[in-house]
Amino acid sequence: MRAYGVSKEDRFVSWTFLTGGGVTADAVNFANASFVGSEDGNVYKLIQSAGFIRSDCWSYETMGSIEHSPTVFGDRIYVSSRDTKIHCLSDAGEESFLHWSSPTGKPVVSSPVVTAASVYAILRDDRYSAPVTELVSLDTADGSERWRKAGVTDILHTSSRLVSFLDASGRIVNCSASDGQEKWSLDTADCDEVLSLSSAFLLVYDAEGLIQKITVRR
Question: Residue 130 belongs to what domain range?
């Protein structure tokens, strides 16, 4: 329930800040600020050197638990919440400025991933015997939905043209960023893990020690 400011030099705790719920995701540091999401439904702006300063800090409340780190891209802060919405904010000093708050219909269970004009996130609904998962793509300008894909469990790679993700059947799927149209897929159901190495490579390895490097080109 606390956020801690720790000196890099001597690991001394410089300050602490008490939130109203658990803090389960890393804070995001940008410029001189730290943005902390909490299960109390708030995202907090704190000052890295001092913690909470009333004249230069704020909290923004959502209607659901925040369990994943916010994403800072340019001058915007993107927040995912179990209130089924993705929120887009700016830091206005002692308060936040809301650009848009877009409902997705399902709890948002990943940090937002922002590339060019798109913001992506994983949705998950646990009300059914088998959880329902989706990947949603929103326009960064106004939060309008561009497209969505069912059965997606993890975002692997994004660029201005392409999005690669892992689906529930164990496939790596590569699709167009503009409309979600599938370009190719690779069955990795027998593999232990799929990792994104960079903006151009994926690494796949299995229990037998086979390692495959996949180049994302088209």
Answer: 109-218
